[in-house]
Amino acid sequence: MTEETTTAAAEAPATEPKFSIQRIYLKDLSFETPQGPSAFTKQWTPKVKQDLATKSTKIDDGIYEVALRLTITVSSDEDTIYLVEVDQAGLFTIEGFEDQQLTQVLNTTCPNLLFPYAREAIDNLLTKGSFPPLMIPPINFDALFASAVQQAAAEKSKEAGGEAVAEESDETKH
Q: How far is Cα 100 from Cα 30, in angstroms, rounded to an integer?
């Protein structure tokens, strides 16, 4: 019986999901201080604006690059004090996931792993730029993904409803 079980297991394709980090790297980095030295001589009332984006690219079978772009703009009134943009990326081996699970891993798990590196790059850059550290709060990528899925579903249902109304109006014209 053990031989039969072993043979059956060997013949069955491996469908167990696999996830591993191949490499985490800094893909792009930009730092601007448009005010120059006057940024250090004026009294500012800074306002922080944070933008976030992710991009996933299939490199090979089971290999994906995920890039997390974090843009921080600190301004006072109409003047930009500094602007930092970091593209923190990683290569991930992701196999054996269904489409919906794969999408979720690419948009939640991978950015969760990349975010601390992006935050550290920004902190290091600000220190070298002679600005005070910026405490970037954690981001709940799972909640962002769930919200995006709900928004996409709502838009899809609106479009479907709009098409049904359009079809009905076409029928009434005849």
A: 34
Q: How far from 155 is each of 90, 114, 149, CA to CA, in Å?
A: 31, 29, 10
Tokens of residue 152, six digits: 């996409």
Range of the domain at 122: 15-136
Tokens at residue 106, please?
């690419």
Is 10 a domain residue? no
Provide the strand spans (E) within the chain: 18-32, 47-60, 63-76, 79-95
What's the predicted TM-score (pTM) here?
0.78
Nearest in space to 33 (alpha carbons), one of 123, 119, 136, 131: 131
Q: Quote the CA–CA distance of 56 and 99 in Å, as a whole number.
A: 14
Q: Look-up: residue for tokens 């891993």?
A: 105
Which tokens sit at 3? Answer: 């031989």
Could you please report the per-residue DSSP string of 124-162? HHHHHTT-----PPP--HHHHHHHHHHHHHHHHHHHHHH
CA 58 to mean position of chain CA atoms = 15
Q: Summarize pLDDT for 117-169 with one digit per residue, the tens.
A: 999 999 999 999 999 988 899 999 999 999 988 998 888 888 776 554 444 43
Q: Is residue 22 part of a domain?
A: yes
> How many domains are contained in the chain?
2
Closest CA to 54 of 42, 70, 43: 70
Is 88 within the bounds of a domain? yes
92 shares a domain with 25? yes
